[in-house]
Amino acid sequence: MGKLLGIALAIAIAFVFALAFRHTRLQRIARERLNEDVQVSAVRRSGGLTPSLRRQRWIPPAVGLGVALLCKFVLGFDLVYSVALGVILGVVAHLFEGWRHAQHQIKLETQLANSLDLMVASLGAGSGLMSAIEGAAHEAGKPLKPELQETLGRIRFGETPKQVFEDLAERVPLEAYRLFAFTMAVHGETGGSLAPTLATVGRTIRDRIEIGRRIRAQSTQAQASVIGIVLITYFLGAMMWRTNPAGFEEFLRHPVGSNIVAAAIVLQAIGLLWITRLTQLRF
To answer: What fold does the segment set 106-210 form as a domain?
Structure first.
């Protein structure tokens, strides 16, 4: 009965916090809309980053808190174990969310390189710039397709190409898109032949993608080593439990033993964050 009351209380508290957060967020959005300047840029009106690059930073804390509450009130674990498991699983969720974000970045850069190839072919065949962008937007898939369509539509509505491509670089803050936006902005000011320049930009983007893949392949070895060491510790713990179940369970129930095990789990979480940060190279 006590466990059910604890679970109900935790759910009620979480529901109240969710309602309060939603109410505060709606008030903030309403104030921002009321105070919005008439001259605000279109990128801010559209919500900033493109949806595919928006980080879901609320997921890791939610996973960690959910695991801690589940272990404490449902499974009946000690508080130190519940907190330690919530921390390490929250870190795992953070790493997974970062990997997902990196995959979206790679997809956007690859799609841009493919679209530039299509634009170069269209320009080489004698098409105009708008026709080349339209053809690339038609062939591109999500998440690049909506970005190219918005860029094309804004130019046709009369906005300056320089501002439109600068906004594109702000919505998609990747080096490849900054290079593309800078190239298009300079061409809009100076003119000249665009196909050779875009071909060079496309090759540069593909070279960056290839270098990034090699760096990730090298860093994966270090990450796999750390993950293997972490898993080995749990395997050794399971073997010790099978060898002497009574003594191992007594050690886990003892305050000193529980604190030591919980501290080891938290240190493993810190180690995962550390090795991930060390292997993230910018170039």
So the answer is: Receptor-associated Protein (1.20.81)
